[in-house]
Specification:
heterodimer, A: about 10 residues, little secondary structure, B: about 210 residues, mainly alpha, two-stranded antiparallel sheet, 9 helices, 2 strands, transmembrane helix (chain B), ER-Golgi transport (chain B), ER lumen protein-retaining receptor (chain B), membrane (chain B)
Chain lengths: ~10, ~210
């Protein structure tokens, strides 16, 4: 799993 | 954005509107778990802290604002305006049994050990079990109003649609978030027996009643 800091989902 | 995620968000929005409509029309919150609504407010508060720090889109920001505002408004209705109709005897699930383990897990299993990231992880884990007090209450009362079962169906469908969204994003965007997917599957699995009852009973015009 890559870096997912900016969570763009609600 | 893809059709599954949009349908999921609309289903979530519909669920919230159904709940508010039910309480406003019947002037009552009978059969609704206030604890689940408190947990949802906590979920939105801890997940949307980046509301002002990172801008994704107008849609994203307005939906976040609406979810936060509606969750607190629901709590206001339940614990203040329609307090007399709140069934606290049947809403007896211990929230701390959910918040404490989920809080510990968020510290141990996350994408990065940063405050915002841990709070986001906490919110994802908490959302997957936040419906338990409501399902517990329905099982204790043995039945649910038809409008309440529509609310639960829309709410359960939202995360099921998000699972399709994650499959789509995995194959088309190469996006994959293990924490969100695992929690989303747990959340959806918790609705399975309700989905069964809803489809076999409510859609046939019967009232949702659990086998005693």
């Amino acid at each position: 799993t890559g870096k997912t800091f900016t969570h763009d989902e609600l | 954005m893809n059709v599954f995620r949009l349908l999921g968000d609309m289903s979530h929005l519909l669920a919230i509107l159904i709940l508010l409509l039910k309480m406003w029309k019947t002037r009552s919150c009978a059969g609704i778990s206030g604890k689940t609504q408190i947990l949802f407010a906590l979920v939105f508060t801890t997940r949307y802290l980046d509301l002002f720090s990172s801008f994704i889109s107008i849609y994203n920001t307005t939906m976040k604002l609406f979810f936060i505002a509606s969750s607190y408004f629901t709590i206001f209705l339940m614990y203040s305006k329609f307090k007399a109709t709140y069934d606290s005897n049947h809403d007896s699930f211990r929230m701390e049994f959910l918040v404490v383990p989920v809080g510990g897990l968020a510290f141990l299993v996350n994408h990065e050990f940063l405050p915002l990231e841990i709070l986001w992880t906490f919110s994802i884990y908490l959302e997957s079990v936040a419906i338990l007090p409501q399902l517990f209450m329905v099982s204790k009362t043995g039945e649910a109003e038809t409008i309440t079962s529509h609310y639960l169906f829309a709410l359960g469908s939202y995360r099921l649609l998000y699972i399709f969204n994650w499959v789509y994003r995995y194959y088309f965007d190469g996006f994959f978030d293990l924490i969100a997917v695992v929690a989303g599957c747990v959340q959806t699995i918790l609705y399975c027996d309700f989905f069964y009852l809803y489809i076999t009973k409510v859609l046939k015009g019967k009232k949702l009643s659990l086998p005693a």
